[in-house]
Amino acid sequence: MFQSIGKPSRRRSALAAVAVLGVVLAGCGGGGKGPASSEAANAPADPNATLRFSFATDASKNYDPVTAANPFVTTFLLPAYDRLLDIDAKGKVVPMLAEKTALSDDGLTLTLTLREGVVFHDGTPFDATAVKANIERAKTAERSTLKPELAVVTAVDVVDPRTVALKLSAPAASLPAQLADRAGMMVSPQAFAKPDLALAPVGTGPYRVVEGGQPGVLVVYERFDEYWNASTTAEAVKRIELHIQLNPETRLRSTGAGEFDATMINLDQFKAASDTKLQVLSQQGAGAFQIYLNMSKNPALAKPEVRAALSMALDRNGISQALLGGQCTPSAQIFPKDYWAAAPDLGPDAAKFDVAAAKQKLADAGFPDGFTMSMTSVNVAPYSTVTEAVAAQLREIGVTVELKIAEPAQVMAGFVAQKSVDSYVSLWPGAVDPAQTVASLYLPGGPLNPGGAPDEEITRLAAEGQATPNGEAREKVYQKIAARAVAVTSHLPICSAPLLLMASTKVRGLTSTVAGAIDLRAVKIAGSAP
After folding, report:
1. Nearest-5° angle of CA 279, CA 384, CA 444?
2. Residues in Cβ contact with 420 at an 8 Å cutoff, skipping those fewer than 6 apart
3. Can you give the pTM of this predicted structure?
4. Which helix (H) or strand (E) holds 279?
5. How far is residue 187's CA from residue 323's CA, in Å, rounded to a whole number?
6. Residues paired with 400 in a beta bridge
7. Please, which residues have CB within 8 angstroms of residue 308's CB and are 6 or more apart in sequence?
8. Most confident of 113-127, 284-298, 326-340
């Protein structure tokens, strides 16, 4: 959830005499809340209200849960698409469209008992046949980005209209959590062939899309009157306007001026937002700012010694202090230090900044004169400014970086689809289970491992993690994976970051998923105070 936080203290930057934010931000469960002194805190919710939310990315203008590649797309999907399962504020998998689950003794069959009385937005009944069609589409569609998450599913058997059995090639401890995310989002089978499905979602969620024809500008949702769980949204807003505004300063100013009810803000905007009369809300996520690498395209990046040199050339603390408001915790691993899958004992050298040592390591790897690599990011701060800082730091060790700062759709196409760019600087928002992070970033076939670079040890441990029941033993497996990813420098994490929002004091119930996606499904806006 998002926690309301107070005014920041000040301290000096490691790079320059700039003010940074020294507040410790903590995540917690439940909905965000406004200041206790606000009259809106006690006013009744207006069920006919419209939530105007300003979002920072268009998610590549593709809102199909199967084919979307942008990691920020889930915010667009949640209002329209229910999932087979859900995850509560404590990280526990709980029922959603499937009201019961049962795992066979050998761990190779997961049986789902489906909820009755659910319909898709187009009137199509939700049943076991629809589940089978969705999972098979996610496994076989040419552009599906969900294949790694569902690779373990070998068959989907319809037992009866309310019962479906997933046959597995091996035990998969993460599968229930995956079915609480995009892999479990149910699309109407009647809509599979719609040419505009990417812009016009057809799910079973509490809101249906009524205006999606302005990709990159606006998506409008209205409450779905036939929603199976309507009691949970009875006081929620009737209409959601999800506006896309890439410029972070424009988002902050327009929300402060009352043009929008809420927005996401960048780490370097925390103080400016805190100086307004609006709520500033925070949640510690499970992801990281990082440099994604295509380790198969550029011969230099194929060498772990070269990647280690790049890591040593990064002044992570300097980037955080000077460009991210001091809010982003420097780290060489993908998971935040307090997350259960994080490697606990990496040692002080894991994120060491040492230009001389980096130059020597590069020379020892066969590149005494450096090399050239391409790097892309979206054309908004702080992504573009962090990318420029990284390029400047790598130049200090002789690496020439060809920058490609572009629109989001171009960036994702170049790195993920066309695989024409060596590296990509952005934020990994986290995932519902570390297995999904590992599959997306480190395993061959992962959408954010475009070169398909394998690491036999990570691949072996990933299989072990899936076969190990949830608990301490599974935690240790993923901690080993996190440590191994650092040891072979699979991608280049820079720092762990919280998710920040700014909202009117009338807004209540802003929540987020464990993967850091903003959830607008149960947001309320207070009406006039009594």
Report:
1. 100
2. 297, 374, 414
3. 0.74
4. strand 279-293
5. 40
6. 372
7. 361, 489
8. 113-127
